[in-house]
Amino acid sequence: MAESGAPPPWIAHRFVPTLTEVVQHQQRVPPSADSESMRESLEEFIERAIRRAETSLSRQLPDMLEVILQEHALALSDRFRDEIRAVVRQTVTDAIREKLPELKLASRSEGSANSTQ
After folding, report:
1. In whole angstroms, how large is the CA radius of gyration of the chain?
2. Cα–Cα distance between 114 and 117 in angstroms, integer?
3. What's the whole-model pTM score?
């Protein structure tokens, strides 16, 4: 073939990667534990996860509560301020209404006393 000028035939196996190490596939067989011990180990895992979460949350809780309480205190102080203003305004209005007739009478009597002098 080389004499005819044609290139040598392409050999695929030269370019195919080969496995140089034999790996034995070992099938993992779970321990022959009964379902009760599996349930206990699962419950222990869950308990550990809950304890970790509780620890983390107990560290974060004071900061979270501080922010929440501060926000509520600000909201309540604004609300209380508005309520106090409304109550004071209403009280002053009621007091003026009560005293208005007396003030009118007093101003008339003063006016008539001034005109007679």
Report:
1. 47
2. 5
3. 0.35
